[in-house]
């Protein structure tokens, strides 16, 4: 009888035992496909982040930032885990092959010292046991990888749902503060139930009649909300592994080590991609306010497939003393403040659709005239002409304003363009200042 099985458990059918023994074949096929598939995830996440950064206001970006971190942790963990699984299975296959060629294990010989060979057999002689441990490790990694992937997949989905709800309610007329308070009111009971469930497992409370009556139903409510996708598989996998190690000495330290490792993976996932940092308002301000940084896409000619966060010289017209053309990106986070702070009268109602659209575009350009200001080499530009323009690359169609500055005070060599937008810093309220160094001869 298998001591690991419950006394009342039904015996495993023969086909299931055979499948368990030969599961490595399916594991290798799926693991190889998973490695290839997971390597595509960072690019897909870049596109998702690009969509969020271009189409959502500042408050909504906070929620999408959290969701994005979860998705990046998912991608990084999957790539690392499946590669590790593939390596473990390759080692297992290699050792199985060697063991079949040399079934007798280590053979005593006269080339090496006797005591060294005895120590070698004592330390490494259990080849069959090592093969079984590698087999269990490979299968365990494979199952846990999908369980953890499911956890972060669900967290990301929940985050995206909250993002859409937040954006929809703000568009409907609610303030961001009201939406966040509403979400907090809805989530607070769930968080409280989660904490109570954890506390109820302690030896002091676990056998109380109320705990025995309500602990399981509450756990199911929390589980259904936390894991809307593949809940049964995730819950079964995680609890199956946890139940085998919960009573072992040092389980708490292993759990803590796992959390620390998870935090490290989160930080590495965040730092590995600069675009993710654009969600942070302080970084969005700081990345533009660098007069010594010459961007690689400064002329607009180089291949660039990311999000524009600084003004660029499009290269559509040459830089001369008669005029300077620059394009300023205006994602939704800035368009919100451009429109809400505009003093120009709104487009009147009752116009036909085509005329209303044209008047709306004219209104946006007039508002941009209030929202933007320019200075070349420290001298403010008193006059400038504005036009709407989309720049398109692999990241999508990015909306912005093209400005023509007549008679700029250029000098030979390095020049500095300063573009100020009335996008307030969330802490200081200061406008966003972007510098664009360029050369003129």
Describe this structure in words.
This protein is an alpha+beta fold and 441 residues long. 59% of the residues lie in helices and 12% in strands. The chain is built from 14 helices and 7 strands. The chain has a 4-stranded antiparallel β-sheet. Strand 4 and strand 5 form a beta hairpin. Helix 2 packs across helix 6. It is extended, with a radius of gyration of 30 Å. The N and C termini lie far apart (87 Å). The N terminus is likely disordered.
**What amount of the residues lies in strands?**
5-15%
Radius of gyration: 30 Å
Structural class: alpha+beta
The major pleated sheet works out as: 4 strands, antiparallel
Q: How much helical structure, as a percent, in the residues?
A: 55-70%
| Euclidean distance between termini CA atoms | 87 Å
Can you tell me the overall shape?
extended
Please give the number of β-strands: 7
Average per-residue pLDDT, rounded, comes to 82
Low-confidence segments, given as residue ranges, are: 1-8, 297-302
> Count the helices. How many?
14
The ordered string of helix (H) and strand (E) elements is HHHHHHHHHHHHEHHEEEEEE
Q: Strands across the major sheet, in which order?
A: 3-2-6-7
């Amino acid at each position: 009888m298998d001591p690991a099985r419950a006394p009342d458990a039904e015996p495993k059918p023969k086909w299931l035992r055979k499948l368990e023994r030969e599961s490595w074949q399916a594991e290798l096929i799926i693991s190889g496909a998973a490695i290839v598939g997971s390597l595509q995830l960072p690019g897909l996440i870049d596109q998702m982040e690009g969509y969020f950064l271009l189409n959502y206001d500042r408050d909504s970006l906070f929620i999408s930032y959290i969701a994005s971190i979860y998705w990046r942790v998912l991608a990084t963990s999957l790539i690392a885990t499946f590669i590790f699984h593939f390596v473990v299975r390759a080692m297992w296959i290699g050792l199985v092959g060697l063991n079949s060629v040399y079934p007798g294990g280590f053979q005593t010989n006269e080339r090496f010292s006797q005591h060294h060979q005895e120590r070698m057999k004592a330390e490494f002689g259990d080849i069959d046991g090592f093969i079984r441990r590698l087999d269990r490790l490979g299968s365990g990694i494979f199952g846990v990888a999908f369980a953890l992937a499911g956890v972060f997949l669900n967290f990301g989905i929940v985050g995206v749902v909250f993002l859409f709800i937040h954006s929809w309610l703000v568009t409907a007329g609610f303030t961001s503060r009201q939406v966040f308070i509403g979400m907090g009111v809805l989530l607070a009971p769930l968080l409280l139930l989660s904490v109570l469930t954890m506390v109820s497992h302690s030896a002091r409370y676990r056998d109380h009649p109320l705990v025995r009556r309500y602990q399981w139903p509450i756990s199911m409510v929390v589980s259904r909300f936390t894991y809307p996708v593949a809940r049964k598989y995730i819950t079964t996998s995680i609890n199956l592994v946890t139940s085998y190690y919960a009573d072992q000495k040092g389980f708490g330290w292993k759990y803590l080590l796992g959390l620390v490792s998870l935090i490290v993976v989160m930080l590495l996932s965040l730092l590995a991609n600069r675009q993710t940092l654009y969600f942070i308002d302080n970084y969005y301000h700081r990345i533009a306010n660098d007069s010594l940084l010459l961007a690689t896409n400064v002329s607009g000619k180089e291949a660039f497939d990311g999000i524009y966060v600084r003004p660029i010289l499009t290269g559509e017209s040459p830089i001369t003393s008669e005029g300077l053309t620059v394009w300023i990106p205006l994602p939704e986070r800035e368009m919100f403040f451009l429109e809400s702070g505009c003093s120009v009268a709104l487009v009147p109602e009752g116009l036909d659709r085509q005329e209303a659209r044209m008047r709306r575009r004219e209104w946006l350009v007039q508002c941009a005239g209030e929202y933007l200001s320019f200075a070349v080499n420290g001298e403010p530009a008193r006059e400038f002409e504005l036009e709407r323009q989309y720049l398109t690359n692999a990241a999508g169609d990015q909306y912005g304003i093209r400005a023509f500055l007549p008679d700029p005070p250029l000098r030979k060599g390095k020049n500095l363009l300063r573009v100020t937008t009335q996008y307030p810093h969330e802490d200081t309220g200061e406008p966003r200042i972007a510098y664009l160094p360029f050369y003129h001869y």
